[in-house]
Amino acid sequence: MATTALAARVRLCALGVRTVQAQGFSSDQPHDLDRGAGAIREAGGAFAKREAAEEERYFRAQAKEQLAALKKYHEEEITHTKKEIERLQNEIERHKQKIKKLKHDD
Predict the structure, then answer these.
(1) Is the full-model pTM beyond 0.85?
(2) Which one of 18, 31, 55, 94 has the fewest beta carbons within 10 angstroms of its own beta carbon?
(3) Roughly how many angstroms between the first and final C-alpha of the chain, as a whole number?
(4) Which long-range contacts link 56-65 to residues 24+ away (Cβ below 8 Å)?
(5) Which residues form the signal peptide (predicted)?
(6) What CA–CA distance (Å, rounded) separates 45 from 19?
(7) Is the distance from CB of 48 to CB of 41 less than 8 angstroms?
(8) Mean pLDDT throughout 4-20?
(9) Radius of gyration, CA atoms only, the chain
(10) C-alpha distances in Å from residue 97, one per residue of 48, 86, 88, 94, 103
(11) What is the three-class DSSP state of 22?
(12) Which pLDDT score is estimated for 88?
């Protein structure tokens, strides 16, 4: 009986820890996470324009990096596929030679 009570306590404790972890560090208003975001931009002015320009620059740089990574990936795939084609063509040629040799031996 003591072991089942202990096991139940451990389960409840673990459940409590998981619940706290799932909630994270939340405020009293969990649905208002975006409140205050963009307040500078809403105020307008030169600072808002500068921030908007920096955001645009950041996202353009991110897109450029992603595009470069994608291009590199596809180039590597092409190189790998060409090597695989060459390997398979050599294998086909090897099998043709075996067939030719078998026909010649008959």
Answers:
(1) no
(2) 31
(3) 84
(4) none
(5) 1-22
(6) 43
(7) yes
(8) 56
(9) 32
(10) 73, 17, 14, 5, 10
(11) helix
(12) 98
